[in-house]
Structure formats: C-alpha cells, structure tokens
Design a protein that fits this description.
This protein is mostly helical. It has helices at residues 12-18, 25-56, 63-84, 90-105, 115-129, 135-152, 156-159.
Length: 160
Amino acid sequence: MTVITHNRRRSRLSTLIDQPGGVSAGVALAQAKANLAEMEARSRAVIEEQVSALAALQPASSPEETARLLDQAYDHSSAVIDAAGPFELKDLCAAAANLCDLIDAAPEDRPFDWRIVTVHAQALRLLLTLPVDAAEARTQVLASLKDVLKAKVPGVAQSD
C-alpha cells in the first residue's frame, strides 16, 4: 500500500489570523460607543426635523391625498425610529412605532382621524423636551399613546 503525503502550505490569511494582535472586544466596544456619541447631535437634529415635518402635515381633502399624506406620516415616524434607535431613545421609538401601527391599521374605507397624527407629533415633541430623569412623565405619555392605539384598533387591548 502506498501512502502519499505532501506538505500543506499555510495561507497568508491563516498566518495572520493565528498571530496575536488587534483589539479586545472591550476596546472595540468603547471605540464604537465613542464613534456613535459623535453622531448623537446629528441624530437629534434629524429627529427634530422629522417631528416638525410630521407636525406640519395637514388633513387631506380627498381619499387619494389622504393615502399620500399617511405615507408621508409613516415615513417621518420611521425616520424617527431609525435616528433614535442607535442611541437607546426607546420612548421616542415607541411613540413613533405606535403611530406607524395606527397608520397600518387604518381602514381604507373610512376617513382617517387626523388628530392621531397631531397628537403623536405633540407627544414626540414633548418626549424630546422632557429631562432624561422624567421617567414617570415619559411612561405616562407612552401609556396615553398606547390607549389611543387600543381605542382605534380593535383587538389590540386583548393582545397587550
């Protein structure tokens, strides 16, 4: 019986991987947090722009315009979630997601209650201005918005 052996050559990549170096996970996380912190001011500006645009939307005069404006409101709310999410601004994300849920659940055969958009825009502005340590007030605002969802969307009260 013949056995053939050959020397396996190590690839350059495997050699680099096996060498010590790089940064530890803790250092990498600290660097990532520092990089993210640099973007927080811009994120807040984006959130404020989107909330202002949401507040500026006016009720539509036709069903076609209603659909277009609801799409815009949904886009503004989604942008708030996108900008607030990386910075752990959970209350802003929850309020914006609540509006998205209400828009998603809006029946197409009935007029949309535009006060929902107005109230959510005002709530988002309030959440932006509340001090960080105002946890009770934030909870109350979010609970009130959740009540709007329960009142407007059948079946939500049972799932909570």
